[in-house]
Amino acid sequence: MLPPMAISNSSLIFPSLLLAVAFAASALVGGGSAAAFACGRGSATKALPFCQPGRPIRERARDLIARLTVAEKVAMLVNNAAGVPRLGIPRYEWWSEALHGVAVSPGVHFGGDYPSATSFPQVISSAATFNASLWELMGKVVSDEARALYNSGRAGLTYWSPNVNIYRDPRWGRGQETPGEDPAVSARYAAAYVRGLQQPSGGNRGLSRLKVAACCKHYTAYDLDNWKGYDRFHFNAKVSKQDLEDTYNVPFKACVLDGGVASVMCSYNQVNGVPSCADPNLLRNTIRGQWRLNGYIVSDCDSVGVFYNAQHYGSRPEDAVAYALKAGLDLDCGPFLAQYTENALRQGKVSEANIDSALTHTVAVQMRLGLFDGENQPFRDIGLSDLCSNSHRSLALEAARQAIVLLKNRAKTLPLSPSRLRTVAVIGPNSDATATMIGNYAGIPCAYTSPLKGIASYARTVHAVGCTSVACAGEQPVDAAVEAARHADAVVLVVGLDLSIEAEGRDRFDLLLPGRQQELITAVAKASKGPTVLVLMSGGPLDVSFAEADPNVAAILWAGYPGQAGGAAIADVIFGAHNPGGKLPVTWYPQFYVDKVAMTDMAMRANPSTGYPGRSYRFYSGPVVYPFGHGLSYSVFTHSLVLAPSRLSVRLAGTQTNPLNSLNSTTNRAVRVKHARCNGLAVPVHVDVTNAGDRDGAHAVLVYWRPPAGHAAAARQLVAFEKVHVAAGERVRVALGLDVCTDLTVADVYGVRRIPLGDHSFEIGELTHTLSLQGDSLQW
C-alpha cells in the first residue's frame, strides 16, 4: 500500500492535457474530409465475415481479430489506434468528450462549416433540474451533433462522458462535472444521459446498435485532484466496503445495469492500496462479472503509466501491462500498452488470449456503432443543419432556466417588474461572463448570451464590474460599482468562481468567495436605493452566510455554470418570464466544516468518537448554509398523499426456509436482498401536487426515506423524485414507485445489501408516511 505523496514530476500534473496535444493529430479523420469506413464498396475485405452486418457482432469481432498480427493487435490497444491498411481499416481516435455538449478533444475537430456545437449547462447545474426526461433529451441532442460531426469526418463515435463520481467534498475542483452528492440522483442522471447519447436499437442491450458509445467515469472513489500536497496520481483512497456499495459505486452500477453503457473508465487513484486500473476485483469481478458490462473498460488518460511511474506498482513496465490486462482493462488512453505489451508477451507475463479478449470488447463496440458496415451507415442523414439548430438552442435555454436555484427571496422581491425600472446596475466579475458559463470539458458554443446581455433585453442597464476578475485581489474598482448602484433602480450582482479557482487539477482550500467579492457585495447592497439581487455563478457550493443574513441583499440565485444561454435564463428568472424550480444537488456547508475535515478522508459516515462529522446530507447533521434539495419558487406547492401502503411483507426466495439464516441479527433484523423474493416487491406512492400560487410552475417531488434505526444507514436518503409542471391553481397527480430490493436497502459493513424490517418513514415535502415492512408470517 502506497502512502499519498506530493507531486514530484511536473509533467504529471495534467497528463490528459499533454496527451490531448500529442494525440490530436492522430484522430480518425481531420480537417473535414468525409468519414473513412472499413468494409467499404470495392474493398477486398467486403466478403469476409467481419464485414458482414448480418452476422452476430461477437462472431464478426472474433473473425477480425483472428486475422491480425500481434503487432497489429497491440497497436489497437491504445486510444489513437493504428489502422490496418491491408484489411482496409482506418486509424481511429477513441478519445472524444461530450460532458454537456460535444467538446474540444482529440477526436473532435471543429472548423470550417462546423465551427461549434450546442453547449448545455454544466452537469452540476443540469442535476439541479431534477428532471430525468430533460437529461435524456439533452443526451439525444448531443448524439445528433456528434453524428453530424462524424458524418463530416470531424469526430469519432466514442465519447468518454458522463462523469458520475459522487461529489463527496465541496472543495473538489471537478465537482462541477458531476450530478452532485446523492447516489440516487447520480445514478438516475447517469442512466438517463447514457440512454440519450447511445439510443440503442435492435438486439438485446449488449448487442444492440448504438448511435454513439458513452463512457461512465471515473471508477471509483475518485474525487480529489490536487489538495495540500495530495494529488490524484498518488492518492490512495481508503474506502470501506460499506461506502463503496452504498455511495461510490452506485452511479457506475446504474450506468451498466440501467443505462446499458458501452464503456467504463477506471481512475488514476488507488483504492485501498491497488490502482483502480489494475484491480481485478473492481474491473473483472465487479464491472464485467457482477454487472455484466457489454462493452470495454478504458483507463483514464495515462493511468497505466501513472500507476507504474508515479505509484511504482510493478517492478518493470511489462508487469504493469500484465496487471492492467489481467485485471480487465481493454483500452489504454495513452501509449503505455502500445510500448510494452509485445515485450510482456515475449516474457510470458501476458498471453495473446489476454490481448484478444481486450480487443474483442473494443471491436465489438465499434461494430455496434457501424464502423465496419462500409458506406451503409446508420444516421447518415444527420448533418450540418443538426448542429446548433433552433430546437437545440431552445433546449439549451430551457435547461439553463430549469437549472437556476432561487436560494433567497425576501419579501417576494423577485420577480422584478421591468416597467417599474428605469435602470438596472449590472455589477460583478461574472456580470458579462461568456466562457465562464460553460465550465470545463466544453466545446465551442453556438453563441453566448451573457448576464449583462440577457438583463439588457428587459431593462436599460448600467455596467460596472466592481472586480476585474473573480480573484478580486488588491486594488479594484469597487467604488465605481457602489456609485453605479447608488443611482440605479435595482442592482443585479453576478459574482462567484470560474476555472481559475475550481477545475481539473485545481481543488479549492475554502468555500468563501475569493478576494474582495464579499466586500463588493456588502458595499453595493448597502448603497443601492432599490433591491439587490445576488447571482452566484459557480460549480461548487459557497459559504454566503453573510449575504443570506444581510437584509440589504433581497434575493439570491445560484446559476451554476448555465451554458451558452445562461445570461438569458438568469434574466428570465429575475424578471418573471420563468418561474424557478431548481433545487440544490449538493449541501452548501459553512466554512468551518472544511476547516476541520480533511479532503483525504473518504468516510461518508460520521464518527462521534473522533468528532468526524460525516459527509453529505445523508450522514452530516450539522449546520448548513443551504441544505441539499433547497430551492424556492414564485409559487407555493402543497402535497397530499393519495396512495401508499402501510404494511408490506417480505417473502424469502428459493430454499431459504429458515429466516434467521438471512438476518444479520435478531434485534436489528434485515433480510439479505439475494434471499428475498424480489419480483413484484414494490411500494406504490401516489401524490397530488397543488400549485397554490398565481403563477404556473414546475416542481420537483422529492421522496426521502428514513430506515429503521440500528443499521448504520443514512439518516435519510432520497429514493425517488419526479419533476412535474403544475398550472396556477391546478392539481397534478404524480405516481412514483419504490422497488423494495433496490430502493429500501442498506449496506452492511461487508458491503452486503439487506432489507431492514420494521417501520420505514417517508417524507414528501410537508408529508410523512410510515410503512411497516415485515417478514411473511407463513415463513416466520
Task: Indicate the topology.
Layout: H1 15-23, H2 57-66, H3 70-74, E1 80-81, E2 92-93, H4 123-127, H5 132-151, H6 183-198, E3 216-219, E4 226-227, E5 230-231, E6 236-237, H7 241-248, H8 250-257, E7 263-266, E8 270-271, E9 274-275, H9 281-290, E10 296-299, H10 303-309, H11 317-327, H12 336-346, H13 352-368, H14 390-403, E11 405-409, E12 424-427, H15 451-456, E13 461-464, H16 478-486, E14 490-496, H17 517-527, E15 532-537, H18 545-549, E16 555-558, H19 566-574, H20 591-596, H21 616-619, E17 637-643, E18 647-650, E19 670-672, E20 682-691, E21 697-706, E22 717-726, E23 731-739, H22 740-743, E24 746-747, E25 753-756, E26 758-764, E27 767-775
Parallel strand pairs: 3-7, 6-8, 7-10, 12-13, 12-14, 14-15, 15-16, 18-27
Antiparallel strand pairs: 1-2, 4-5, 8-9, 11-16, 17-20, 19-25, 20-23, 21-22, 21-26, 24-25, 26-27
Helix pairs in contact: 2-13, 5-6, 6-8, 10-11, 11-12, 14-19, 16-17
